[in-house]
Amino acid sequence: MPTPSKGARLGGSPSHERKILANLASQLITHGQITTTESRARRLRPVVERHITFAKRGDLAARRRVLRTLTDKTVVHILFTEVAPQMAERQGGYTRIIKIAPRKGDNAPMAVIELVTEPVSPKQAVVREATKAAEKAAKVPTPASAKSADSPESADSPDSAPSAASAEETAEETKA
Hints:
Ribosomal_bL17; Large ribosomal subunit protein bL17; three-stranded antiparallel beta sheet; ribonucleoprotein; 7 helices
């Protein structure tokens, strides 16, 4: 659980806030999405994402760690058997918050928080970098052409690599 913020809390005391977040988390895991106020949704997101991270580990210690806050064993079972395998490929960002119209009675800003169940797709930037790397790999020059391409006068310098003719001369000398 994140440490409670200073100032006004969702339900008054820190313990009440933890209970509210635990109940919201269990409902989100059970139903896949819930409608709540924006502030509660923002406070709920790190709690649920941490639970999902523990569920992806899948060991007994992680299950007991989640059972500290989510006291319903059926919710924890759903988290470990259904939700965690769906999120196995995802590296984070397990939840999505969508703002909706304000509540009628008190005009409170409302939001829908839901679990992201779509398959992971690579980002466009990562795809672009991969294609650039593949293009560079396809255009890799040979070592001899790389030296001549780097500096045209390097072939004339005395410290440059020996030419093919000098390599043949050294090969003939070693034979004799």
